């Protein structure tokens, strides 16, 4: 049915139609070990890399050490976006859809992506190419990934300009992109747009908000983005990630090496963390000492075996804890600074629209109760969302309990918001999602490009 609606628009190609960049969320890019070519993340057959043995844990974890987080050197390489997950049960191959739903929606609109056209995952036709997948190392600091996104945009812009010059005779065309970003991909997108290549200053202050990264972007569509964080980030750093189906569990010490997960934590000012005994709200979530007192993540005594795998050169637990202490402090400080940079109120730059697709039909964890003695984390309250991200988090709703009003108050200057009755992953499977995304990309009035 959508093909009938958008068929003519999908066949109308040219410089007036922006190329699209699709940005996946956490876990949405394949990671490969160049030493032997094996996928460390993205394929689960009989020979996959396991997180619960020393070699596998060291490969999957982000190396810890002195210096800045960006100085951490991992031997893994990004090996493209994860449109589907290759799995094997009893040596029988299966393919599970991941971001193929977004690609299929764009395929209806006539967008063709070179990465997956050859694989045959999506039938894009033969006459269009303007869909690009931005793959990144989702374990790393989101600011690093934001800078990589800007480099990617610059590279693809040169490619599209060459195409326009060859096919349309337009020299140095003013190419702009539309962006569709899912989940955590929306966070790094927002940072890139606001701050360009500026880093978070080492003194803890915030960079100048210049919108430098928005120069070559016209439409931005965020899908299920946890703009105010997700309780799931804390529970996974506490208990590990219990992935669905038959995938292996990822222990909390391994996840605790990844700066991006700390950057998914909810904001303390939103009343998310509560002391189980006193009921008082906790605002120490960015303090490494608080994590050590609770025995969370890298500090969990039961995780010392995993920590010894990750730090085989350390002489004992005391030395391992010293490394962990420095790493967690860096991750939490970076997360607090990253949150402050994204939470700064700012009007959109002229010529750029910002749209949100989110859900409010699933019970979603909203606040946790923390046991002061053993550090246990239990869900205290739930509210509406997509099962992973609260409605209020996606909106970045700042109407706190003591300062509530009937109108949304958010530091994000939304152009439009669409609510879908679905869950976090199912958002992209919805026909309402596909219909409205195609309208925004293909039919919503925008700038007119002429030679």
UniProtKB/TrEMBL annotation:
Q: Which domain of life is it from?
A: Bacteria
Q: Which GO terms describe its biological process?
A: lipid metabolic process
Q: Which PANTHER family match?
A: LECITHIN-CHOLESTEROL ACYLTRANSFERASE-RELATED
What GO annotations for molecular function exist for this entry? O-acyltransferase activity
Q: Name one Pfam family in it.
A: LCAT
Which keywords label this protein? Acyltransferase, Transferase
The protein's name is Lecithin:cholesterol acyltransferase
């Amino acid at each position: 049915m959508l093909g009938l609606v958008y068929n003519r628009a999908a066949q109308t190609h040219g410089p007036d139609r922006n190329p699209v960049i699709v940005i996946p969320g956490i876990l949405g890019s394949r990671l490969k070990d160049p030493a032997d070519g094996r996928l460390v993340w993205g394929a689960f057959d009989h020979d996959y890399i396991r997180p619960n043995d020393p070699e596998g844990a060291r490969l999957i974890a982000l190396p810890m050490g002195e210096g800045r987080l960006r100085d951490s050197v991992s031997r893994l390489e990004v090996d493209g976006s994860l449109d589907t997950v290759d799995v094997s049960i009893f040596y029988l191959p299966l393919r599970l859809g991941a971001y193929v739903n977004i690609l299929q929606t764009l395929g209806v609109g006539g967008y063709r992506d070179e990465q997956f056209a050859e694989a045959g995952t999506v039938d894009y036709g033969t006459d269009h190419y303007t869909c690009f997948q931005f793959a990144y190392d989702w374990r790393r600091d989101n600011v690093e990934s934001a800078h990589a996104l800007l480099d990617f945009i610059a590279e693809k812009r040169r490619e599209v300009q060459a195409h326009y010059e060859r096919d349309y005779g337009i020299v140095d065309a003013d190419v702009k992109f539309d962006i569709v970003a899912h989940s955590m991909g929306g966070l790094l997108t927002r940072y890139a747009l606001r701050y360009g290549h500026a880093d978070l200053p080492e003194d803890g202050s915030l960079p100048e908000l210049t919108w430098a990264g928005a120069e070559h972007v016209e439409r931005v569509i965020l899908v299920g983005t946890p703009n105010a964080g997700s309780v799931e980030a804390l529970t996974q750093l506490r208990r590990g990630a219990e992935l669905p189906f038959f995938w292996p569990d990822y222990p909390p010490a391994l996840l605790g090496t990844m700066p991006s997960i700390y950057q998914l934590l909810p904001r303390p000012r939103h009343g998310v963390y509560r002391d189980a005994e006193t009921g008082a709200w906790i605002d120490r979530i960015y303090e490494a000492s608080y994590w050590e007192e609770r025995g969370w993540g890298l500090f969990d005594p039961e995780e010392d075996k995993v920590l010894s795998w990750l730090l085989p050169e350390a002489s004992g637990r005391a030395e391992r804890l010293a490394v962990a202490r420095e790493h967690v402090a860096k991750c939490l400080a970076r997360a607090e600074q990253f949150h402050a940079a994204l939470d700064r109120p700012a009007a959109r730059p002229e010529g750029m629209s910002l749209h949100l697709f989110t859900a409010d039909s699933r019970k979603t964890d909203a606040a946790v109760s923390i046991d002061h003695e053993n550090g246990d984390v239990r869900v205290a309250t739930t509210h509406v969302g997509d099962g992973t991200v609260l409605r209020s988090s996606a909106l970045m709703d700042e109407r706190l309990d003591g300062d509530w009003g009937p109108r949304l108050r958010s530091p994000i200057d939304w152009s439009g918001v669409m609510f879908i009755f679905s869950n976090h992953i199912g958002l992209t499977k919805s026909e309402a999602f596909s219909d409205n995304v195609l309208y925004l990309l293909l039919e919503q009035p925008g700038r007119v490009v002429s030679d």
